[in-house]
Every structure is written in structure tokens, then in C-alpha cells.
Amino acid sequence: MHRLSYSQFGEDITAAKLLRNVETGFYVDIGAHHPLRHSNTALLHIGGWRGVNVEPVRRSIDLFRRYRPQAINVHAAIHNEANSVTLYKFRKGLANTIIERRAEELSANKKSEGQEVVPALSLNDVFERHVPQGVRVNYLTVDVEGYDSEAILAFDLGKHHPDVACIEIQRPDMMALGENSVVRYMFDHGYQLYAINVFSFTFVSVRAAAQHLDMPRVARLREVTRQGGRKSGGP
Fold this sequence. Notes:
Layout lengths: L10 H8 L7 E5 L11 H5 L3 E6 L2 H10 L4 E4 L1 E2 L5 E7 L9 H7 L5 E10 L1 H8 L8 E4 L5 H6 L10 E5 L12 H8 L2 E7 L2 E6 H5 L5 H16 L4
Parallel strand pairs: 1-2, 1-7, 2-3, 4-6, 7-8
Antiparallel strand pairs: 5-6, 8-10, 9-10
């Protein structure tokens, strides 16, 4: 049966499949953009989930506050060190970025809508300040247009360990994914790469897969990957 997708590349269908055993879970949506359009969490929200939406555009977070009032809606960009950053804005908002060089590149074929200074938090800040104490995060999605790798590599996965994480990786070398810093970081912290939806890479916690997600084949796949790495000279 066909299932409606709200995501740009079907990421929400992948998430729904992985998290089918979680009846009413909790998500963290970083770079949430819009309550419905191109949303990786709209399908979960409609299914009764609650969570945290983080978005640097004021009018966008106002929409979340209107249409997802039960959620925790945070007006902020993501940065590991600064308390505020300059957001470079573009028409429709999908390409908004805090990376000046990226903004200059995008300006060649996208209509700029100016820039503004917005508050900023790290991923660790988001989890420590806005995820209710004792709540398991079942789904983390990160799409922050050029700052994704920096955000994830500074994220404490030992302390904060979501069941499933969807991370945008721009222009990956598909012939050498094992050398990608984000893929390696996730693998080293107990995750297995499960799916690639264009630029969105979905990782599953092996621990969660073997327990409440009831997906033992993910754990077996990780072991096969490890053995392959050893045979080819990997660690």
C-alpha cells in the first residue's frame, strides 16, 4: 500500500520502517524547516509522536508553534561554539546556511533574501536543555546546510544515543564511504549505516536494533562490515 511521504527524498518512510515498533516516540528535528513541507518528522508527528524542532528562521518556528503546539519549538541555528551566528537566507528556505563560503556559491543560482543574526546552540545544548530528562530520543534528523559534519562530530554520542539518526552528508565519495568522517564517527559509536536517500544517510544504533527495535539483522550486518574491514586492512 502506498504511504504518503512528507520528506524531500522519502527519509520519513525509512524512519517509519525502522521505528515501526515504537508506538509513540520522541524525535529531535534539527533544521526543521516547515511542519509539513520537506519534513522528516511530520509523519511521526501525525502518528502521535512528540519532540523538539530547532529552526533558525523566525517565521518557520512560528509555524511550528502554531501547528505543533505540543512540541518543543526552538528558534536557533546550530553551532558548536558561538552563541549567535549570521544566517544567510535564500528563497524557499531550503538552502539557508551559516557558512559564508557556501552562501557565496549558492548566490550564483539562488535568490538571496538577505541575512540576519540568530541565536545558536550546539547539538549537545539542544539535548541537554530541551529533551525532557529521562526521555529516550528515538529519532534524530540533522539538516543544517553545510554544517552537518561539524555538528555531528562534536555531538556526544556516548551520552546522547538516539535510536536512529538521519544526517545530511553533501557530496560524499560513494566509493570510500568508510573513510567519510561522519560515517566513521557513527560506526565507532555503535551505529550501522542502514539507508541512503540521496544526501540523507540513516544510521541505526546496533544496541537499539538488537533490543526494543527488534532488528537483529542490523547487528549481524555490522559484524559482517567489521569482518570486511579487517580483511581489507581496516581496524
